[in-house]
Design goal:
The protein is mainly α. It is 64% helix and 0% strand. It has two domains: 34 residues, no CATH class; 31 residues.
Length: 84
């Protein structure tokens, strides 16, 4: 909240409804955590890899279910082979 509105943060802190750290401590935490806003490229690549693996798993499951359904529909049929 401090990054959106320092004045609103200070007002909330002064109401003492919540135990919030002072601005100096907040700035220390922000500076110590040198990550920028949003996802990093590495995290996005990990997410993409996980998503692609999930899609492949779902495709395999679908194909297996489709094959099982085909096999089970053929179980009740009788195949007659005629010899000449």
């Amino acid at each position: 909240m401090y990054s959106r509105s320092p004045a609103a943060y200070e007002a909330l802190r002064n109401f003492k409804l919540l135990q919030l750290p002072c601005v100096h401590t907040l700035k220390y935490y922000i500076d110590a955590n040198l990550e920028s806003a949003g996802d990093s490229l590495e995290r996005l690549q990990q997410s993409r890899t996980q998503y692609c693996a999930l899609v492949e798993d779902r495709k395999k499951e679908f194909e297996e279910k489709k094959k099982d359904a085909r096999d089970s529909s053929n179980e009740g049929t009788l195949t007659i082979i005629l010899h000449e």
